[in-house]
Design goal:
The complex is a heterodimer of chains A (153) and B (284). Chain A is an alpha+beta fold. Chain A has a single domain, classed as Jelly Rolls (Sandwich), CATH 2.60.120.10. Chain A has four helices and eight strands, in the order ααββββββββαα. In chain A, the strands form two sheets. In chain A, strands 1-8-3-6 form a four-stranded antiparallel sheet. In chain A, strands 2-7-4-5 form a four-stranded antiparallel sheet, with no helix packed on it. Chain B contains eight helices and 15 strands. The relative contact order of chain B is 0.14. In chain B, strands 10-9-8-7-11-12-15 form a seven-stranded mixed sheet, sandwiched between helices. Chain B has two domains: 105 residues, Translation factors (Elongation Factor Tu (Ef-tu), domain 3), CATH 2.40.30.10; 130 residues, Nucleotide-binding domain of ferredoxin-NADP reductase (FNR) module (Rossmann fold, 3-Layer(aba) Sandwich). The longest helix of chain B has 13 residues. The radius of gyration of chain B is 18 Å and the shape is globular. The chains are: A alpha+beta (153), B alpha/beta (284).
Chain lengths: 153, 284
């Protein structure tokens, strides 16, 4: 458990996490690995875990008619996969696929949500960590929508 | 930018085009063509990384195009053009041996002298890699003069990666960091996917001793500058290449006026703090 605590504390997503919160998060965490081409989760499925990447890259994909799977973002070590776990209705809105061997810490989302409800200080801390990720991804999506590299860019 | 002034000063009449011949023509992406020109019977002179030429397709019109070749080989005047308007499309169709008009080089280039001794981060978006390529040639030719050299390049999709073979060659060097990302990709692409700004927080440079050279669509440059600031780089250490409707190229006609500056004469490369505020002004 101490090894898991250290990994969680050192992951950039949890930088500066208070010790009492680290223990709470750690109680919901486990080590996982995914082989290349294995899916972490699929669109529409319950967002019951999210992942702190330690090694390897993950592609976030959407399926479009006639185009198959389109990757709109890749994530790598020190980033997190999955933000829908904190926002109702707690369902994934895309597929996540390992591009190579991926090692990660999986956080049981239902477990952490329960702890957030019981301790709003923890909940607020989690919100402050997830919101910047959401905002960065929103800004990236805006740039992608603008298609700035097109002829009108 | 001193050498840019020297190259611009020795032209007798900057409004009179010389005749140049297309020596080579290569497709570099959907609608993107690279033309290598040779000026008829004239001393090729030279150019500074970041400068541009005015190219004429006779009977069609004239457009400003950045030099995208090696400044150490000034007899090969390389330009990369996207065929999107009548003139650029006509230019892209000129076959080897065909004649075009050539005026230039014009404008202020990248701050190569100021970059000496510092880390250099080049942030390129789409066709914006073309005006940055001469700077990269210079950095690699004089590699010992600079600290870390980092190229962060983003484009729309894998088949639109500009100068792909050359990027792959540069990547094999051990003295430059190169990251390429695309906005979206199908399953056969194994590189990064995401906007170019997401590469900045991981780039290996010392923000207190670095210069950033940024070129791409204006929106992309705004976001890139914001990410560079977040990474600790001062606004005075960020340079960007602006694109406007250059016509005379010597600061007389005013077509490329951008607030208090004329892009053809005062740019196209500007230190960011000179344009602060203007980039977000809708009216200009």
């Amino acid at each position: 458990m101490e090894g898991l605590e250290r990994i969680i504390r050192e992951h950039p997503f949890f930088a500066g996490l208070e010790e009492r919160f680290t223990a709470l998060v750690c109680g919901c965490a486990k080590n996982v690995r995914f082989e290349a081409a294995q899916y972490l989760f699929h669109e529409g499925g319950p967002a019951d875990e999210f992942y702190l990447l330690r090694h390897g890259r993950v592609a976030l994909e959407l399926r479009a008619p006639g185009r198959g799977a389109v990757t709109f973002q890749t994530l790598r070590e020190s980033e997190i996969v999955g933000v829908s776990w904190l926002i109702p209705p707690y369902r994934w809105t895309y597929d996540a696929k390992a591009l190579e061997l991926v090692r990660a810490i999986a956080i049981d989302a239902a477990c952490l949500r329960r702890k957030c409800e019981a301790d709003h200080d923890l909940g607020y801390d989690m919100m402050k960590r997830v919101m910047p990720v959401l905002v960065q991804r929103l800004q990236a999506a805006r740039l992608q929508i603008l298609d700035v590299y097109g002829s009108h860019g | 930018m001193g050498d840019a002034a020297a190259f611009a000063a020795d032209r007798a009449d900057p409004m009179v085009p010389r005749v140049a011949r297309v020596r080579r023509r290569r497709r570099d992406g959907p609608l993107v063509w690279t033309l290598e020109l040779e000026a008829d019977g004239a001393d090729p002179g030279g150019f500074a990384p970041g400068q541009f030429n005015m190219l004429t397709v006779f009977g069609v019109g004239e457009v400003p195009i950045s030099l995208s070749g090696d400044p150490a080989a000034p007899d090969r005047l390389v330009h990369t053009v996207r065929a999107v308007g009548p003139v650029s499309a006509a230019l892209a169709r000129v076959e080897p041996g065909g004649a075009v008009g050539l005026r230039g080089p014009f404008g202020a280039g990248w701050p190569m002298a100021e970059a000496a001794g510092r880390d250099v981060v080049l942030v390129a978006g789409g066709l914006g890699l073309a005006p940055l390529r001469p700077a990269l040639y210079r950095l690699l030719a004089e590699r010992e003069r600079y600290g870390n050299v980092v190229l962060l390049y983003g484009t729309r999709s894998p088949d639109e990666i500009l100068f792909r073979r050359e990027i792959e060659t540069w990547r094999r060097r051990l003295d430059i960091d190169i990251e390429v990302t695309v906005d979206h990709a199908a399953g056969d692409w194994h590189g990064h996917v995401g906007v170019v700004t997401t590469l900045i927080p991981r780039a290996a440079f010392d923000p207190l001793h670095a210069l950033a050279l940024v070129c791409g669509p204006e929106v992309m440059m705004r976001f890139a500058i914001s990410a560079l600031r977040d990474a600790g780089l001062a606004e005075e250490a960020v340079y960007l290449s602006m694109e406007r409707n250059m016509k005379c190229a010597v600061g007389l006609c005013g077509h490329c006026q951008f607030g208090p500056v004329l892009v053809c004469r005062d740019g196209p490369v500007f230190r960011f703090d000179r344009l602060r505020g203007l980039l977000r002004t809708k009216e200009i």
